[in-house]
Amino acid sequence: MSFKWIDKYSCNITEIDKQHKKLFEIGDRLYALASLNDAYDHYDEIMDIFNELKEYTIYHFDYEEKLMEKYGYQNIDSHKIEHMFLLKKAQKYEKQDIDADQLKSTNDLIAFVSDWITSHILQTDMQYKSFFNEKGIY
Ligand SMILES: [Fe+2]
Ligand SMILES: [Fe+2]
User: Fold this and answer.
1) How far is the centre of ligand 2, averaged over its atoms, from the C-alpha of 101 (Å)?
2) What is the pLDDT along the chain (138 residues), one digit of tens a residue?
3) Quick one: residue 136, left, alpha or beta (phi over 0 = left, psi -120 to 50 = alpha)?
4) Using CA atoms, how far apart are residues 124 and 127, in angstroms rounded to an integer?
5) How far is the CA of 100 from the centre of ligand 2 (A)?
6) Cα(103) to centroid of ligand 2, in Å?
7) Domains in the chain, CATH or no CATH each
8) pTM above 0.70, yes or no
9) How far is the CA of 45 from the centre of ligand 2 (A)?
């Protein structure tokens, strides 16, 4: 698993790519911390970064949704539902009793963050790429 931004993630819209890169950067920090195999407990730090990711995601989702609204993107409703599900799931992770099994919780969290960042961009965000480009948005 990796959180390195590569060209295939590009939606060909400068501001969106910039925001996605930021999500990758936060995800990468989270992953690096979760992969540390030392004797220390990093859970609080992991949750701090997780919260940072969540806050930035709220900002980013809002930006995308406003852009979709402004240009009358046809798949806006299903796209918004996906955003909502991801944020709901993130909230569940926040409330979880993480002390019980930290390794499993951390692995679950990373898998979720990967789904959140990479799958959503590749499968859902990518669908608006040509729509916006055709409207002259780059
Ligand atoms: Fe996005
Ligand atoms: Fe999105």
Assistant:
1) 31
2) 778 999 999 999 999 999 999 999 999 999 998 888 788 888 889 889 999 999 999 999 999 999 999 999 999 999 999 999 999 999 888 777 666 677 777 888 889 999 889 999 999 999 999 999 999 999
3) left
4) 6
5) 33
6) 29
7) 13-35+43-134 (1.20.120.50)
8) yes
9) 26
